[in-house]
Amino acid sequence: MEELKQCFIEQFGEQGNLTSYFAPARVNLIGEHTDYNGGHVFPCALTLGTYAVARRREDRAIRFYSMNFEESGIVDVQIDDLRYEEQHDWANYPKGVAVIFQQAGYEITTGFDVAFYGDIPNGAGLSSSASIEMVTAVILKDLFNLQIDRIEMVKLAQKAENEFIGVNCGIMDQFAIGMGKKNHAILLDCNTLEYQYSPINLKNEKLILANTNKRRGLANSKYNERREQCEAALHTLQEKLDIQSLGDLTTEEFEANKHLIPDKIVGKRAKHAVYENNRTIEAVEKLNAGDIRGFGKLMNESHISLRDDYEVTGKELDVLVEAAWNEGAVGSRMTGAGFGGCTISIVPDDRVDSFIKVVGETYNAQTGLEAEFYVADIGDQAKKL
Ligand code: GLA
Questions:
Q1: Where are the alpha helices (DSSP H) in 200-314?
Q2: What region, left, alpha or beta, does residue 317 occupy, with left being phi > 0 and alpha being psi -120 to 50 degrees?
Q3: Which of 48, 168, 240, 315 is the most buried (most CB within 10 A)?
Q4: Residues 6+ positions from 169 with CB-CB distance below 8 Å
Q5: Does the beta carbon of 247 lie inside 6 Å of ligand 1?
Q6: Partner residues linked to 196 by β-bridges
Q7: Number of folded domains in the chain?
Q8: Is-contact 295 286, C-beta < 8 A?
Q9: Is residue 264 part of a domain?
Q10: In this predicted model, what pLDDT tens digit does every residue of 303-324 receive, in sequence order?
Q11: Model's pTM, two decimal places?
Q12: CATH of the domain at 97
Protein backbone atom coordinates (compact mmCIF):
# COMPACT_ATOMS: atom_id res chain seq x y z
CA MET A 1 0.00 0.00 0.00
CA GLU A 2 2.86 2.39 0.88
CA GLU A 3 4.54 1.69 -2.44
CA LEU A 4 1.30 2.31 -4.29
CA LYS A 5 0.81 5.64 -2.49
CA GLN A 6 4.38 6.58 -3.37
CA CYS A 7 3.72 5.66 -6.97
CA PHE A 8 0.50 7.70 -6.98
CA ILE A 9 2.40 10.77 -5.75
CA GLU A 10 5.14 10.30 -8.36
CA GLN A 11 2.58 10.09 -11.15
CA PHE A 12 0.00 12.60 -10.02
CA GLY A 13 1.69 14.91 -7.51
CA GLU A 14 1.40 15.43 -3.78
CA GLN A 15 -1.43 17.84 -2.98
CA GLY A 16 -4.77 16.68 -1.52
CA ASN A 17 -6.16 13.71 0.36
CA LEU A 18 -5.51 10.16 -0.80
CA THR A 19 -7.89 7.30 -0.08
CA SER A 20 -7.12 3.60 -0.45
CA TYR A 21 -9.32 0.76 -1.61
CA PHE A 22 -9.15 -2.98 -2.24
CA ALA A 23 -11.15 -5.53 -4.21
CA PRO A 24 -10.39 -9.25 -4.07
CA ALA A 25 -10.03 -11.88 -6.76
CA ARG A 26 -12.46 -14.79 -6.63
CA VAL A 27 -12.37 -18.53 -6.97
CA ASN A 28 -15.43 -20.64 -7.64
CA LEU A 29 -15.57 -23.86 -5.63
CA ILE A 30 -18.38 -25.45 -7.63
CA GLY A 31 -21.23 -24.37 -9.95
CA GLU A 32 -19.50 -23.55 -13.23
CA HIS A 33 -21.26 -22.07 -16.25
CA THR A 34 -24.48 -22.07 -14.28
CA ASP A 35 -24.76 -18.36 -13.48
CA TYR A 36 -26.05 -17.27 -16.88
CA ASN A 37 -28.34 -20.31 -16.87
CA GLY A 38 -30.27 -19.15 -13.82
CA GLY A 39 -28.52 -21.72 -11.63
CA HIS A 40 -26.44 -21.74 -8.45
CA VAL A 41 -22.76 -20.92 -7.93
CA PHE A 42 -20.53 -21.30 -4.87
CA PRO A 43 -17.61 -18.87 -5.11
CA CYS A 44 -15.50 -17.10 -2.52
CA ALA A 45 -13.36 -13.97 -2.46
CA LEU A 46 -9.59 -14.41 -2.12
CA THR A 47 -7.00 -12.38 -0.24
CA LEU A 48 -5.31 -11.73 -3.59
CA GLY A 49 -6.75 -8.67 -5.29
CA THR A 50 -6.53 -5.17 -6.71
CA TYR A 51 -5.40 -2.22 -4.59
CA ALA A 52 -6.18 1.36 -5.56
CA VAL A 53 -5.32 4.85 -4.35
CA ALA A 54 -7.53 7.69 -5.55
CA ARG A 55 -8.10 11.44 -5.24
CA ARG A 56 -10.68 13.80 -6.65
CA ARG A 57 -9.68 16.49 -9.12
CA GLU A 58 -11.11 19.95 -9.71
CA ASP A 59 -11.53 19.55 -13.48
CA ARG A 60 -13.23 16.88 -15.62
CA ALA A 61 -10.17 14.73 -16.35
CA ILE A 62 -9.91 11.12 -15.22
CA ARG A 63 -6.39 9.74 -15.09
CA PHE A 64 -5.58 6.07 -14.57
CA TYR A 65 -2.22 4.49 -13.84
CA SER A 66 -1.37 0.85 -13.12
CA MET A 67 1.85 -0.40 -11.54
CA ASN A 68 1.19 -3.67 -13.40
CA PHE A 69 1.20 -1.97 -16.79
CA GLU A 70 3.82 0.74 -16.41
CA GLU A 71 4.34 0.71 -20.17
CA SER A 72 0.80 2.10 -20.65
CA GLY A 73 1.82 5.23 -18.70
CA ILE A 74 -0.99 7.50 -17.53
CA VAL A 75 -4.26 6.94 -19.39
CA ASP A 76 -5.84 10.36 -19.56
CA VAL A 77 -9.54 10.71 -20.47
CA GLN A 78 -12.42 13.15 -19.98
CA ILE A 79 -15.60 12.34 -18.03
CA ASP A 80 -17.75 13.59 -20.85
CA ASP A 81 -16.00 11.56 -23.51
CA LEU A 82 -15.51 8.04 -22.18
CA ARG A 83 -15.28 5.54 -25.02
CA TYR A 84 -13.87 2.04 -25.40
CA GLU A 85 -10.42 2.46 -26.89
CA GLU A 86 -8.36 -0.55 -27.89
CA GLN A 87 -5.05 1.10 -26.99
CA HIS A 88 -6.30 1.85 -23.47
CA ASP A 89 -6.30 -1.88 -22.83
CA TRP A 90 -6.82 -2.55 -19.06
CA ALA A 91 -8.04 1.03 -18.44
CA ASN A 92 -11.20 0.25 -20.38
CA TYR A 93 -12.46 -1.69 -17.32
CA PRO A 94 -12.54 1.24 -14.88
CA LYS A 95 -13.68 3.51 -17.68
CA GLY A 96 -16.57 1.15 -18.42
CA VAL A 97 -17.71 1.24 -14.80
CA ALA A 98 -17.69 5.06 -14.80
CA VAL A 99 -19.75 5.11 -18.00
CA ILE A 100 -22.33 2.62 -16.75
CA PHE A 101 -22.63 4.43 -13.39
CA GLN A 102 -23.34 7.65 -15.23
CA GLN A 103 -25.87 6.00 -17.52
CA ALA A 104 -27.63 4.65 -14.44
CA GLY A 105 -27.95 8.21 -13.14
CA TYR A 106 -25.11 8.24 -10.59
CA GLU A 107 -23.44 11.56 -11.05
CA ILE A 108 -19.67 11.75 -11.25
CA THR A 109 -19.30 15.43 -10.52
CA THR A 110 -15.55 15.92 -10.99
CA GLY A 111 -12.57 14.15 -12.45
CA PHE A 112 -10.23 11.98 -10.36
CA ASP A 113 -6.82 10.32 -10.41
CA VAL A 114 -6.34 6.68 -9.52
CA ALA A 115 -3.38 4.33 -9.33
CA PHE A 116 -3.86 0.55 -9.23
CA TYR A 117 -1.73 -2.38 -8.21
CA GLY A 118 -2.93 -5.99 -8.40
CA ASP A 119 -1.38 -9.24 -7.22
CA ILE A 120 -3.85 -11.46 -9.12
CA PRO A 121 -2.04 -13.58 -11.68
CA ASN A 122 -3.12 -12.22 -15.04
CA GLY A 123 -5.33 -14.29 -17.35
CA ALA A 124 -5.54 -17.01 -14.71
CA GLY A 125 -9.33 -17.06 -14.51
CA LEU A 126 -9.39 -15.51 -11.03
CA SER A 127 -11.36 -12.48 -12.22
CA SER A 128 -8.78 -9.73 -12.32
CA SER A 129 -11.24 -7.85 -14.57
CA ALA A 130 -14.19 -8.06 -12.16
CA SER A 131 -11.78 -7.08 -9.38
CA ILE A 132 -10.69 -3.84 -11.06
CA GLU A 133 -14.34 -3.18 -11.94
CA MET A 134 -15.49 -3.58 -8.35
CA VAL A 135 -12.65 -1.55 -6.88
CA THR A 136 -13.64 1.21 -9.29
CA ALA A 137 -17.27 0.94 -8.19
CA VAL A 138 -16.20 1.33 -4.56
CA ILE A 139 -14.03 4.34 -5.45
CA LEU A 140 -16.89 6.06 -7.28
CA LYS A 141 -19.32 5.48 -4.45
CA ASP A 142 -16.85 6.87 -1.94
CA LEU A 143 -15.45 9.84 -3.88
CA PHE A 144 -18.86 11.07 -5.00
CA ASN A 145 -20.97 10.04 -1.98
CA LEU A 146 -23.27 7.99 -4.17
CA GLN A 147 -26.40 6.52 -2.60
CA ILE A 148 -26.02 3.07 -4.07
CA ASP A 149 -26.21 -0.32 -2.43
CA ARG A 150 -23.84 -3.22 -2.89
CA ILE A 151 -26.03 -5.39 -5.10
CA GLU A 152 -26.67 -2.46 -7.43
CA MET A 153 -22.89 -1.87 -7.65
CA VAL A 154 -22.40 -5.55 -8.48
CA LYS A 155 -25.05 -5.39 -11.20
CA LEU A 156 -23.57 -2.24 -12.74
CA ALA A 157 -20.05 -3.73 -12.75
CA GLN A 158 -21.41 -6.78 -14.58
CA LYS A 159 -23.18 -4.47 -17.00
CA ALA A 160 -19.90 -2.66 -17.68
CA GLU A 161 -18.30 -5.99 -18.59
CA ASN A 162 -21.27 -6.98 -20.80
CA GLU A 163 -21.90 -3.72 -22.57
CA PHE A 164 -18.65 -1.76 -22.49
CA ILE A 165 -16.10 -4.59 -22.69
CA GLY A 166 -18.34 -6.91 -24.69
CA VAL A 167 -17.95 -10.08 -22.64
CA ASN A 168 -21.33 -11.62 -22.00
CA CYS A 169 -20.44 -12.90 -18.49
CA GLY A 170 -22.92 -13.84 -15.78
CA ILE A 171 -23.06 -12.20 -12.35
CA MET A 172 -20.92 -14.61 -10.34
CA ASP A 173 -17.57 -12.80 -10.43
CA GLN A 174 -18.77 -9.33 -9.53
CA PHE A 175 -21.08 -10.79 -6.88
CA ALA A 176 -18.35 -12.85 -5.22
CA ILE A 177 -16.01 -9.85 -5.20
CA GLY A 178 -18.65 -7.40 -4.02
CA MET A 179 -20.28 -9.65 -1.41
CA GLY A 180 -17.50 -12.05 -0.31
CA LYS A 181 -16.83 -12.68 3.38
CA LYS A 182 -13.65 -13.86 5.05
CA ASN A 183 -13.50 -17.65 5.48
CA HIS A 184 -16.89 -18.13 3.82
CA ALA A 185 -18.12 -19.13 0.39
CA ILE A 186 -21.42 -17.83 -1.01
CA LEU A 187 -24.17 -20.03 -2.33
CA LEU A 188 -25.86 -17.71 -4.81
CA ASP A 189 -29.05 -18.39 -6.72
CA CYS A 190 -28.29 -16.42 -9.88
CA ASN A 191 -31.94 -16.38 -10.82
CA THR A 192 -33.24 -14.58 -7.71
CA LEU A 193 -29.91 -13.30 -6.28
CA GLU A 194 -30.82 -14.92 -2.96
CA TYR A 195 -27.62 -15.97 -1.24
CA GLN A 196 -26.29 -17.54 1.89
CA TYR A 197 -22.81 -17.81 3.35
CA SER A 198 -21.23 -21.15 4.23
CA PRO A 199 -18.25 -21.17 6.58
CA ILE A 200 -15.24 -22.88 5.04
CA ASN A 201 -13.25 -24.16 7.97
CA LEU A 202 -11.16 -26.97 6.66
CA LYS A 203 -9.52 -28.59 9.67
CA ASN A 204 -7.10 -30.94 7.96
CA GLU A 205 -6.98 -29.70 4.37
CA LYS A 206 -5.91 -26.71 2.32
CA LEU A 207 -7.47 -25.18 -0.78
CA ILE A 208 -4.79 -25.16 -3.47
CA LEU A 209 -4.99 -23.13 -6.65
CA ALA A 210 -2.90 -24.32 -9.56
CA ASN A 211 -2.39 -22.00 -12.52
CA THR A 212 -1.92 -23.74 -15.88
CA ASN A 213 -0.18 -20.62 -17.19
CA LYS A 214 -1.98 -21.36 -20.41
CA ARG A 215 -3.23 -18.17 -22.00
CA ARG A 216 -6.94 -18.29 -22.59
CA GLY A 217 -6.79 -17.73 -26.36
CA LEU A 218 -10.27 -17.60 -27.89
CA ALA A 219 -11.94 -17.89 -24.52
CA ASN A 220 -14.35 -14.98 -24.97
CA SER A 221 -15.80 -16.17 -28.26
CA LYS A 222 -16.08 -19.75 -27.02
CA TYR A 223 -17.69 -18.50 -23.82
CA ASN A 224 -20.30 -16.56 -25.79
CA GLU A 225 -20.88 -19.62 -27.99
CA ARG A 226 -21.63 -21.80 -24.93
CA ARG A 227 -24.14 -19.20 -23.76
CA GLU A 228 -25.88 -19.24 -27.12
CA GLN A 229 -26.05 -23.04 -27.10
CA CYS A 230 -27.68 -23.01 -23.66
CA GLU A 231 -30.15 -20.38 -24.81
CA ALA A 232 -31.00 -22.49 -27.85
CA ALA A 233 -31.65 -25.50 -25.60
CA LEU A 234 -33.82 -23.40 -23.30
CA HIS A 235 -35.93 -22.09 -26.18
CA THR A 236 -36.52 -25.60 -27.47
CA LEU A 237 -37.50 -26.90 -24.04
CA GLN A 238 -39.79 -23.92 -23.45
CA GLU A 239 -41.99 -25.10 -26.32
CA LYS A 240 -43.09 -27.90 -24.00
CA LEU A 241 -42.12 -26.88 -20.49
CA ASP A 242 -43.03 -23.90 -18.38
CA ILE A 243 -39.50 -22.87 -17.35
CA GLN A 244 -37.61 -19.56 -17.21
CA SER A 245 -34.09 -20.99 -17.27
CA LEU A 246 -32.22 -24.30 -17.36
CA GLY A 247 -31.71 -23.74 -13.64
CA ASP A 248 -35.40 -24.52 -13.12
CA LEU A 249 -34.94 -28.17 -14.07
CA THR A 250 -34.18 -31.17 -11.88
CA THR A 251 -32.01 -33.85 -13.48
CA GLU A 252 -35.08 -36.12 -13.71
CA GLU A 253 -37.07 -33.48 -15.56
CA PHE A 254 -34.14 -32.95 -17.92
CA GLU A 255 -33.79 -36.69 -18.61
CA ALA A 256 -37.50 -36.96 -19.34
CA ASN A 257 -37.36 -34.11 -21.87
CA LYS A 258 -33.88 -34.12 -23.37
CA HIS A 259 -35.15 -35.89 -26.51
CA LEU A 260 -36.81 -32.57 -27.42
CA ILE A 261 -33.39 -31.05 -28.16
CA PRO A 262 -32.48 -32.18 -31.68
CA ASP A 263 -28.83 -31.06 -31.73
CA LYS A 264 -26.58 -33.48 -29.84
CA ILE A 265 -23.99 -30.86 -28.88
CA VAL A 266 -26.64 -28.43 -27.65
CA GLY A 267 -28.12 -31.29 -25.62
CA LYS A 268 -24.78 -31.94 -23.93
CA ARG A 269 -24.36 -28.27 -23.03
CA ALA A 270 -27.82 -28.19 -21.47
CA LYS A 271 -27.15 -31.42 -19.62
CA HIS A 272 -24.10 -29.88 -17.98
CA ALA A 273 -26.00 -26.75 -16.99
CA VAL A 274 -28.79 -28.76 -15.34
CA TYR A 275 -26.62 -31.39 -13.64
CA GLU A 276 -24.05 -28.84 -12.46
CA ASN A 277 -26.74 -26.70 -10.87
CA ASN A 278 -28.22 -29.63 -8.98
CA ARG A 279 -24.75 -30.86 -8.07
CA THR A 280 -23.88 -27.46 -6.60
CA ILE A 281 -26.86 -27.48 -4.25
CA GLU A 282 -26.05 -31.03 -3.17
CA ALA A 283 -22.37 -30.19 -2.71
CA VAL A 284 -23.11 -27.26 -0.41
CA GLU A 285 -25.43 -29.45 1.68
CA LYS A 286 -22.59 -31.93 2.09
CA LEU A 287 -20.08 -29.25 3.00
CA ASN A 288 -22.45 -27.68 5.53
CA ALA A 289 -22.86 -31.13 7.08
CA GLY A 290 -19.05 -31.43 7.40
CA ASP A 291 -18.75 -34.02 4.63
CA ILE A 292 -15.61 -32.76 2.86
CA ARG A 293 -15.13 -36.04 0.99
CA GLY A 294 -18.66 -35.89 -0.37
CA PHE A 295 -18.06 -32.29 -1.46
CA GLY A 296 -14.75 -33.26 -3.10
CA LYS A 297 -16.35 -36.09 -5.02
CA LEU A 298 -18.88 -33.68 -6.50
CA MET A 299 -16.03 -31.30 -7.45
CA ASN A 300 -14.54 -34.18 -9.43
CA GLU A 301 -17.88 -34.87 -11.12
CA SER A 302 -18.13 -31.19 -11.96
CA HIS A 303 -14.79 -31.35 -13.75
CA ILE A 304 -15.80 -34.44 -15.72
CA SER A 305 -19.00 -32.74 -16.83
CA LEU A 306 -17.10 -29.60 -17.88
CA ARG A 307 -14.65 -31.82 -19.76
CA ASP A 308 -17.04 -34.18 -21.52
CA ASP A 309 -20.35 -32.34 -21.85
CA TYR A 310 -19.50 -28.64 -21.72
CA GLU A 311 -16.06 -29.12 -23.33
CA VAL A 312 -14.33 -26.12 -21.79
CA THR A 313 -11.36 -27.78 -20.09
CA GLY A 314 -8.61 -28.59 -22.59
CA LYS A 315 -5.45 -30.60 -22.16
CA GLU A 316 -3.72 -28.39 -19.60
CA LEU A 317 -6.60 -28.28 -17.12
CA ASP A 318 -7.28 -31.99 -17.57
CA VAL A 319 -3.65 -32.94 -16.93
CA LEU A 320 -3.53 -30.82 -13.76
CA VAL A 321 -6.80 -32.20 -12.43
CA GLU A 322 -5.97 -35.83 -13.18
CA ALA A 323 -2.56 -35.45 -11.56
CA ALA A 324 -4.30 -33.92 -8.52
CA TRP A 325 -6.72 -36.85 -8.30
CA ASN A 326 -3.76 -39.24 -8.44
CA GLU A 327 -1.90 -37.30 -5.73
CA GLY A 328 -4.60 -37.71 -3.12
CA ALA A 329 -6.68 -34.56 -3.61
CA VAL A 330 -10.02 -34.83 -1.81
CA GLY A 331 -11.46 -33.01 -4.84
CA SER A 332 -10.08 -31.16 -7.84
CA ARG A 333 -11.61 -29.30 -10.75
CA MET A 334 -11.11 -26.46 -13.16
CA THR A 335 -12.45 -23.13 -11.91
CA GLY A 336 -13.81 -20.11 -13.80
CA ALA A 337 -14.59 -20.01 -17.49
CA GLY A 338 -12.09 -22.71 -18.49
CA PHE A 339 -9.95 -22.97 -21.65
CA GLY A 340 -6.90 -22.43 -19.44
CA GLY A 341 -6.68 -20.57 -16.15
CA CYS A 342 -6.65 -22.36 -12.80
CA THR A 343 -7.73 -25.51 -11.05
CA ILE A 344 -8.87 -25.63 -7.43
CA SER A 345 -8.12 -28.65 -5.25
CA ILE A 346 -8.78 -29.68 -1.67
CA VAL A 347 -5.57 -31.29 -0.44
CA PRO A 348 -4.89 -32.94 2.93
CA ASP A 349 -2.41 -30.83 4.95
CA ASP A 350 0.20 -33.55 5.17
CA ARG A 351 0.21 -34.02 1.39
CA VAL A 352 0.47 -30.39 0.29
CA ASP A 353 4.25 -30.38 -0.31
CA SER A 354 4.35 -33.64 -2.22
CA PHE A 355 1.19 -32.61 -4.10
CA ILE A 356 2.81 -29.42 -5.37
CA LYS A 357 5.99 -31.26 -6.31
CA VAL A 358 4.47 -34.25 -8.07
CA VAL A 359 1.54 -32.47 -9.77
CA GLY A 360 3.96 -29.76 -10.96
CA GLU A 361 6.38 -32.33 -12.39
CA THR A 362 3.66 -34.36 -14.07
CA TYR A 363 2.18 -31.23 -15.59
CA ASN A 364 5.54 -30.07 -16.90
CA ALA A 365 6.34 -33.49 -18.36
CA GLN A 366 3.02 -33.70 -20.19
CA THR A 367 2.58 -30.11 -21.39
CA GLY A 368 6.00 -28.45 -21.32
CA LEU A 369 4.50 -25.67 -19.19
CA GLU A 370 5.25 -24.69 -15.58
CA ALA A 371 2.27 -24.67 -13.23
CA GLU A 372 2.15 -22.24 -10.31
CA PHE A 373 0.58 -23.16 -6.98
CA TYR A 374 -0.99 -20.94 -4.33
CA VAL A 375 -2.70 -21.68 -1.06
CA ALA A 376 -6.08 -20.01 -1.51
CA ASP A 377 -6.93 -17.82 1.50
CA ILE A 378 -10.55 -16.76 1.57
CA GLY A 379 -10.73 -13.02 2.07
CA ASP A 380 -13.20 -10.17 2.35
CA GLN A 381 -15.28 -8.21 -0.15
CA ALA A 382 -14.32 -5.02 -2.00
CA LYS A 383 -13.92 -2.10 0.43
CA LYS A 384 -12.38 1.21 1.34
CA LEU A 385 -9.28 0.61 3.44
C1 GLA B 1 -16.57 -16.53 -16.09
C2 GLA B 1 -17.76 -15.58 -16.08
C3 GLA B 1 -18.76 -15.97 -14.98
C4 GLA B 1 -19.11 -17.45 -15.08
C5 GLA B 1 -17.86 -18.32 -15.21
C6 GLA B 1 -18.19 -19.75 -15.47
O7 GLA B 1 -15.83 -16.38 -14.92
O8 GLA B 1 -17.33 -14.25 -15.86
O9 GLA B 1 -19.90 -15.16 -15.06
O10 GLA B 1 -19.99 -17.69 -16.14
O11 GLA B 1 -17.01 -17.86 -16.24
O12 GLA B 1 -18.81 -20.33 -14.38
A1: 219-238, 251-257, 264-288, 292-308
A2: alpha
A3: 48
A4: 35, 36, 130, 158, 161, 162, 223
A5: no
A6: 187
A7: 1
A8: yes
A9: no
A10: 999 999 999 999 999 999 999 9
A11: 0.96
A12: 3.30.230.10
Is 223 in a helix, a strand, or coil?
helix
> Which protein residue's CA is at the shortest distance from atom 1 of ligand 1?
337
Q: Does 173 sit in the ligand 1 pocket, CB within 6 Å? A: yes
pLDDT, one tens digit per residue, over 256-305 is 999 999 999 999 999 999 999 999 999 999 999 999 999 999 999 999 99
Q: Are 266 and 281 in contact (CB under 8 A)?
A: no
For residue 285, tell me if it sits in a domain.
Answer: no
Structural domain range at position 77: 2-198
- Count CB atoms within 10 A of the CB of residue 175: 28
- Told to judge if 173 belongs to the known catalytic residues of this protein, a careful annotator would answer yes
Ligand 1 proximity of 133 Cβ (cutoff 6 Å): no
In a domain, 278, yes or no: no
Catalytic pick among 173, 248, 309, 318: 173
Q: How many Å apart are CA 212 and CA 332, to the nearest integer?
A: 14
The residues that bridge with 345 in the sheet, in sequence order, are 208, 332
How many Cα atoms occupy the beta-carbon half-sphere of 157 within 13 Å? 34
